[in-house]
Amino acid sequence: KTEVGEYSMSVVGPGPRASANWKQAQQHGVSAIAKTQFNNTWEISAVPYIPVLPLVLDHAENLAKAGITGVMASWTCGGYPSSNLRAASAYGTDPHLTRQQILEAEAARIYGKKNISQVIRAWDIFSEAFQAFPYGVSIYVLPVQHGPANPLRLHATKLSPGMILFPYDAYQSWKGAYPPPVMQELLLKLSRRWKEGVARLEKIDIQNRKEAVLELAIARTCYTHFASVANQIEFYLLRDELTVTSPQRRVVLQKRMIRLVQDEKKLALLQYEVASGESLIGYEASNHYYYTPVDLLEKILNCDQVIDELK
Q1: CB 290 within 8 A of CB 46
Q2: What is the structure's pLDDT at 79?
């Protein structure tokens, strides 16, 4: 059992603490506002915004029902002028558009009218997938901000992770409330479902649609980061098992580790292409760049070296 006491787009609020504070304020004739994040929360801050408009609208609807009269919007991650903010801002007008009208308007604006249903379905898939994020992890040290840019260590570093920027191979610190295999399973589930949404966006002709090109880059980045963290956790679980198992079992583990590293190399190459095309990717205002394209090239070389050593 875990509790979310942090800003989280993957867990729709408001929570009991905020609700109690607002109720007390309203009982004493004091206006209540909400401190919100509609673009990013720390599940992944390496993108300008997370394309989960249905969850954003869930948040906004709940705030409206709670009688909130204003918002303190954003944090260091979350200032980009995105479709998320445009959708949430609709709730600042009275009467505001319906939920479906907001989704259709944003889908048409970014992708064109003929692609509305396909885009909304992709956003639905992203929102559904995102709710599988295991928020009880140690969110500030999990390498989800770095994704495939975080090198693989075949030999344990024994270094403690730093807040946000230095995850190393410290998966026992990343896990938070979860056993590492459960954390890995949830992130794998998230990444596989998210990939289905990416596939829908990839079918749309987005040529000459700058905002759509950026959103596809964002969607791909979310996929590579979630998938990579799942790979990293499994890799380190197998690495640590190598030292305490039989020679026969060791061969099986090494083969599986090689497949994981090969997948990491593919993710790093994909993310290199994404990050090379969009300078907004991998950047967050208070931490600057988590990685640049050259770090992803280094990861590709790192994967080659790890595979050689395992063989």
Answers
A1: yes
A2: 84
